[in-house]
Design brief:
The longest helix is centred in the N-terminal third of the chain and has 26 residues. The chain is mostly helical. The chain has one domain. The protein is elongated. The protein is built from four helices and no strands.
Length: about 110
């Protein structure tokens, strides 16, 4: 038995982390979220370089970015329902996917209006 409460809880915290596993849906969520983020920044940079006349290629990349963002959000929510998992990958995917889905939808609505 450890000599103090602090040592006891420090030891049990390490044991609890070892028992957690990485979820496949959580990892996919994180990968999809980061992919959508990279696609967004590449699209924005290419659009600024072309002076706003980006064409169909970047429009298609934006559409795939929206699909990746929505997939990341959905997989992140599904991963949260699993028991005893590490939370960083699904949290990354759900947050980045949710934010980017709203940004992509906002850009599409703005493009339709103008």
């Amino acid at each position: 038995m450890p000599s103090s409460r602090r040592q006891y809880f420090r030891k049990t915290r390490k044991v609890r982390r070892r028992e957690q596993k990485n979820s496949v849906t959580g990892i996919l969520s994180g990968i999809f979220g980061l992919t959508a983020l990279v696609m967004f920044f590449v699209s924005v940079i290419k659009t600024f370089q072309s002076g706003g006349n980006s064409g169909f290629l970047l429009g298609t990349a934006g559409l795939f970015g929206l699909v990746f963002a929505a997939g990341a959000f959905a997989l992140g929510i599904l991963a949260f329902k699993e028991k005893n998992i590490r939370l960083i990958p699904p949290r990354t995917g759900a947050v980045s996917g949710g934010i980017l889905a709203v940004v992509y939808l906002g850009l599409y609505i703005y493009g339709i209006i103008i």
